[in-house]
User: What shape does this take?
Amino acid sequence: MSLVTTKEMFERSMREHYAIGAFNINNMEFIQAITDAAEEAKSPVILQVSSSAIKYARMGYLKKMVEAAVESTTIPIALHLDHGPDFETCKMCIDNGFTSVMIDASKYDFEENVRITKEVVDYAHSHGVVVEAELGTLAGVEDEVNVSDDDARYTNPDQAYEFVQRTGCDSLAIAIGTSHGAYKFKGEAKLRFDILAKVKEKLPNTPIVLHGASTVIPELVEMCNNNGANIPGAKGCPDEMLKQAGENGVSKINVDTDLRLAMTAQVRRVFNESPEVFDPRKYLGAARDEIKKVVLHKINDVFCSNNKA
Assistant: This one.
């Protein structure tokens, strides 16, 4: 198969009320683990890349590794830019064969967000690429995203309708209480499903995206901390909330932190338990297996996109 856009994936997800996992990639082990899991589960999947991941791994290397994954699988795979900070970054990814890009102009006021998003949409659509945009602001820290709790704000459903009409974006990331990074909630986890319901009422045919939606799997945090890490009080979105989001109109759920935790936990464990090991294949292989395990759980038990390829 060749890379696909998210259009057909999302159309089916909205009809059948499940979500597609969008998993951030940084190197070969991430790509192999995610696509192997999706192939095993017969699920469509979105591989997404932040601009900092592009700087780290380099565009050419990432693209060729993704192409290798596409050639060795039978599932629909989309390649997506996560949190594109500006038109130039989105254009670079479109010109390099990405099938989907996100322009994140949510830090600007409404009119400027509309203007920047519309500019990206016009260029992307002329090249057969779909666009995700964002309205509302999530708190937290992850790659280029750094937003304080005071600056975070929920998405306004009325503005969401106007925004989609004026920009022509293909999907919309909304803020209903999730946040980036490993510290999503200080108290009890809570998502504003009432806002999600109002947005879907106004935009029944627009795929909705949930960012900052890692579970921050407690077992992985514990494994990290038991092997020398210092990650106290990390807390994410419970699986049951994410499953409810997929059942109630969210078509795309982003996962990054859980994959980082999976890799770090296993690398730390191998180093701690087998200090004589210096073969990277020993610890990166264990990390790849753990990432695959996490992705399979998300696909089969949380997003319910298994057997939807």
In short: DSSP finds twelve helices and eleven strands in the chain. Residues 200 and 274 are 51 Å apart (CA to CA).
